[in-house]
Amino acid sequence: MTVNIGARMRAILAGTGAVAIAAGLLVASAPAAQAATHGHGIRAGDRGHIGSYLTESGEYVLCGEEENEVWPGVGESVQEETVSTWKQASGDTLAQVNWAIDQFANTDDYSAAAAQLFIWSAIDPGTFASKGGVTGYTSLMGDAGTTVEQYFNNITDASAAVTAATAPVEGSVEFVEGSTPATGTVTAKATGASSGTLTLTGATFEDGSSSKTVNLGESYTYTAPVAAPGASTSFSGTVAGTVKGYPAEVSVWGVADRGDAQKTLLGAGPKEFPWEFSGQARVDVPLPPVPTITTKALASVTVGDDAHDVAIVKGEVQAGSKITFEAFIQKNGEKLVCDDTNKVFDTKNSPIEISKAGEYTSGKYTTKDVGNLNWIETLRDPSGKVIGKGECGAPNETTVVKPLPTITTKAIPSVTVGDKAHDVAIVTGEVKKGSTITFEAFIQKTGEKLVCEDANKVFDTKGSPIEISKAGEYTSEEYVTATVGNLNWIETLRDPSGKVIGKGDCGAPNETTVVNPLPPVPTTPPAATTPPAPSTPPVATPPLATTGADGMLPLGLGTAGVLLAAAVALLITQRVRAKRELGNAEQIAE
User: Fold this and answer.
1) What is the pLDDT of residues 453-494, one digit of tens each?
2) Rounded CA separation 187/333 (Å)
């Protein structure tokens, strides 16, 4: 978008000590074909007057060719044209030249001289550089050269913000319907413009007006007449405005017989480019929809728990409408039907009266059977006419009633009295968080009757139950056996409320640990006897010297001690071997 920065440039130049700059003349016609005089500018030695020329008609112009001091208006044949492709300059460059002529040709000597040098540098930078650039001229201006060069730099920097102005080529007026057909928002857009006048036809703004200045891209609320149900209403909007800026063109004129040489430039000045874009909208007002009803039943429960249904009503509901609920049990393996033969719940005698859309919950039904609990909801208008009803077995209208979890045990099969024993509870099915397992053990001595009561209870974990939240295997604490017989385990599963939902049987096969006695201690057989050897006459031997024989046991007593120690060692070895064989047998049994 083209920016008119004349005021900004005047501030920049004023900051350098320049005289305040008046607005440039906006001229569209050619100067008179008469001699012109110097306007504003400074002489640069033999390069002549650098600045603007003033025609007799009061127009300030600048030279398009360097060192064109002789005024080309002298003569009888003059041509004028507005060009947008002069000197192969870009559109933005021509707009910047246009801006420089408009802003600085009729100001002061320093500004006019700087503007002339800027135009030459922009239009033909190669030739300008070959003549020494800006210093090639300012060095010939004496003390004024420094100021002119500073002005030249300021103009060059400010020109970067000037781009060729054109009318927007893309735009729209867009309507977005609001929560009701009578209201909504309207947004006007136009590329390259920031504001415009938006006029509505068939609708008004919030303040009741039909036309207002708007910021492009910003949304505004509109109100339109409400059409009757089943009809439609149409309205439109038009946004218009102008873009002001410097076009990509300059006015050039010169003597006809000199061709393109010595063209003189006259600024085309800023222009206003008008633009306009429109948009339409149509709102169809539908007939009030018939309300709909669906359900969102509780997905699953455990048998014995309460179940309920939730009816979801949408659409426009008449006051006095009613909702009723029915539930039908489909036991596992049975065919899906919803009739009086398997109906287990009905609220026909206590319907829910409603007057608007929403969610409505049925009463509670305590489940009694495992299977699918199929709900059907019915919506009736105030006259009792059915206007919506669910379907038997629909996915969201079914509550799965699951069986209670089961518990069994896998007790250790056998131990030797004095060993530790334990039970393993196996829980299957869906378990509620906070459920607990306890273990009890009852000893049935050999020959006694099978009972499981406090009189023969030897182990109990009621004081330290195992809390569970899922199926699995759970092991009891260890119990050190003390009596030979059958150790009968009973496991109990309770829900979070403490209600017993599973319990083992006294003496069940997998719930019994056989407590075996210690193996008997084997006896040592008597040593074999041998007939006595024939007696031999004793041989007389000389007596030996006594060397510490005092306190020695008699030979017979020492031999008896050795035999006793051997018997004890043999007994210990046999007990260890029997224990190892029994332990191996238990591992195999497990």
Assistant:
1) 999 999 999 999 999 999 999 999 999 999 999 999 999 999
2) 63
Instruction: Name the CA radius of gyration of the chain, rounded.
Output: 57
**3-state class of 193 per DSSP?**
coil
Report CA-CA distances (Å) from 583 to 214, 311, 510, 513.
96, 64, 19, 14
How deeply is 552 buried, as exposed, middle or buried, from its count of CB atoms within 10 A (0-12, 13-18, 19+)? exposed
Q: Name the nearest CA neighbour of 205 among 193, 213, 216.
A: 213
The band of 232, judged by pLDDT with boundaries at 50, 70 and 90, is: confident
Strand pairing report for 466-468 and 358-361: unpaired
CATH architecture of 406-516: Sandwich (2.60)
Who contacts 573 (Cβ-Cβ below 8 Å, separation ≥6)? Answer: none
Please identify which residue in the block is written with the tokens 């006015």.
Answer: 251
Closest CA to 502 of 491, 493, 489: 493
Are the C-beta atoms of 490 and 452 separated by less than 8 Å?
yes
**Rounded distance between C-alpha atoms, residue 117 and residue 149, angstroms:** 9
Query: What's the burial of 525, exposed, middle or buried (CB within 10 Å: 0-12/13-18/19+)?
Result: exposed
Question: 41 in the Ramachandran plot: left (φ > 0), alpha (ψ -120 to 50) or beta?
Answer: left
Q: ∠ CA 23-29-33 to the nearest 5 degrees?
A: 110
Task: Give CA–CA dist 478/459, Å, rounded.
Answer: 9
Measured in degrees and rounded to the nearest 5, phi and psi for residue 400 equal: -80, 120
Question: So what's the architecture of 292-402 in CATH?
Answer: Sandwich (2.60)
- Tokens representing 529 are 């006897």
Report whether 138 contacts 287 (CB < 8 A). Answer: no
What confidence tens digit (pLDDT) does each residue in 329-353 have?
999 999 999 999 999 999 999 999 9
How far apart (Å, rounded) are the C-alpha atoms in residues 553 and 565? Answer: 16
Domain boundaries, the chain: 27-159, 171-245+270-284, 292-402, 406-516
The dihedral over CA atoms of 57, 62, 64, 66, expressed in degrees to the nearest 10, equals 130
81 DSSP β-pair partners: 252
* Nearest one of 426, 443, 338, 323 to 384, comparing CA atoms: 323
Task: Say which residues have a Cβ less than 8 Å from residue 435's Cβ, sequence separation at least 6.
Answer: 405, 467, 468, 469, 493, 494, 495, 496, 501
- Residue 28: other Cβ atoms inside 10 A: 11
**Which residue is associated with the tokens 């009613």?**
322
pLDDT single digits (tens) 143-191: 999 999 999 999 999 999 999 888 888 999 999 988 887 899 999 999 8
Q: Give me 69's structure tokens.
A: 């001091």
CA distance 383 to 374: 27
Q: What is the pTM of this model?
A: 0.42
Give the rounded percent of residues in the chain with a pLDDT score beyond 90.
Answer: 57
Same topology between domain 292-402 and domain 406-516? yes
Instruction: Give the separation between CA 364 and CA 403, rounded to whole angstroms.
Output: 19
CB 310 within 8 A of CB 396: no
Do residues 426 and 510 lie in contact, with contact meaning Cβ atoms separated by under 8 Å? no
